[in-house]
User: Fold this.
Amino acid sequence: MGFHIVKRDQCSLIRKCFLYVGAVAAALVMGGIVLLCLGVDPIAYYTRMFTMGTIGNRIAYKVFENYLKDFVPLALTAVALSLAFKMRFWNIGGEGQFILGAIAAAFVAFKLGPILPNAVALLCMCLCAMLAAGLYGVFAAALKVRFGTSETLMTLMLNYVALYFLTFIAEAKADWNFFLDPSSVRPVFASFAKIVSFPSILTIGKFSLNICVVFTLVIGVLMFIYQKYTKHGYEIAVVGDSAGTAHYAGMKVNTIVLRTVFLSACLIGLAAAFKVGTSGILSVSITNDVGWTGIIVAWLSQLNTAVIFIVSALICVLHYGSTVAAATFSQVDSSFANMLQGAILFMVLAADFYTRFQIVIDKKGGRSNG
Amino acid sequence: MDKLAILTTFIHNIVVFNIPLLYGTVGEIVVEKSGSLNLGVEGIMAVGAIFGYIIGCYANSLGVGIAVAFLAGAMCGLLFAALTVSLQANQNITGLTLTTFGLGIYFFVGNGLKARGWPVMADYSNIKNGFADIAIPGLSEIPLLGRGLFTHNILVYLGVAIAVAMWWYLNHSVPGLKLRAVGENPGSADSVGINVKRFKYLHICLGCGIMGIGGYYMGLNMSGSFNSSCWINGYGWIAVALVIFANWNPALAILGTFVFGFFNTLRVSGSSLASAFPGALGWLVKIPTQVYQALPFIITAIVLFASSVKNKQNSGQPGALGLNYFREER
Assistant:
């Protein structure tokens, strides 16, 4: 019996939801089987993981605050990447752009932080981080537009150039290097948390909400509107579908690509400024892999801004929760989260196929016209 | 130490520490020639490394280790092929996820086993002796270069042999020609009766298997000591870069491995070179190590840029690289 595959015209929302939820469930079941093999009760483990150990925990508010610190950069980066991805511009350079943004923000914090009022200094940090990251991103885009250089590979290379620049700053003990703590003999990053940092705006009991969370949500809404209801957003969608069509319709494709990539990288820089501005210190692992995870999140969310926020919240639970659970279940390493995250995306990618294509089984002897 | 010995050690180290790059690069070239851009090299090497090392140790056989590393890598390739070739998933995303997934497996298995008793390489005589240096008679007598280039463990020779074999296979054999056709224009290849799917599946698995052996090598080279940083340590990404530098040619990849390895090794032993030749190479000490680490990527970025500027006639980049092939969309 033969079969062949044809494109599906449309896929109902219910069917989509069913497929995706099924895919995630299947990945969780597979993870559960691995847990069972290790002699761990999967339900107990998953409960601990998804609640991040907050139940019956007196310092649950602290857990949630730290969780939000991971969530903000990831969600913002994923939103930013989705902009470029929608245009089929493969910005793999989130890591590098994030790093440059973080360095720029820290630079401003050290140089301008002591002389300017807190709010102005923070604004300068954000703007400089956005500019640094944006220019780094637009560099690859310019090469792509002008010479057809593969942006996937170029941004990938630029990630490592940025990373080693950061490690250079981290390890170069010298008089000019104001990023490091002068009182320490070994090279250690200096903290500027006391000079300038993002304030909390709201306190519920012991829990305090950082202003960055609010900003991130607002930017998310703005980006949603930008993509859905503005001319720019429409242009991005058309270029993504077919650059030829866009050109034919009189759109300046190159300008659109450059503009959108700049905006995308700017937002990643902003995410970096938020991260650095709340932690008050640089670190070699400042990105926390958001450049990579952001790609996965953006794709899992089908590049939909609203869904990105939900998915990044869940992925953060996965990562944060697995660290918490690893403390209770010593047999299960915290790298379980990476495995599970990979498995979930693999299953979703597979499920995605059934939303775009359908398998038609040929009738008996039906290969005659196929 | 006399100056000649330092130079010899330097050349020796270039080879010993960087052959995994050759495995990764040749593997990735085979995959990319089929038209698939696999960004999962880092993860695939890690998976090959961990399973190859553990099972190889338990079997106390280097051959079993190599075979298992190859198979583990090929299994990752199968996953990649199933998702991108059959299920039409995006290659960039699938590859990146494979990296996350592979590193997850690496640490999950590694840390899990470490808690119960990690196999120490020195306890397994066959592995330890199998990985010892073998001098090639005659060639290894050459002063300076003899010990530097021709006294190495068996996996170094295997890596070079695979690179040469793949060069021949891609450029001078009929299946190789067909494979290049698939990577260049799958639609045309299909129309002349080449089974595009089968070619893609086979070569993705083959390439990923080769990467797996490269990962195994890294594990052995670290004497199998497992700690918080991964054995692969970014070599997979350098391999992706090296493919571009080598212009998708496995023979050039050998040269590229030397060039990239040269900078890698300068980072580690630049200071000993500087102290041996204070007059000529004393300035080496002043260069920050991060410059050496970043150089492979900077060079690749320049090569990538240069090859896109000049005419594309000579570029070995497959025409359909990164694009999925869906038969009914011709």
About this structure: Residues 267 and 287 of chain B are 9 Å apart (CA to CA). Chain B has a mean pLDDT of 87.
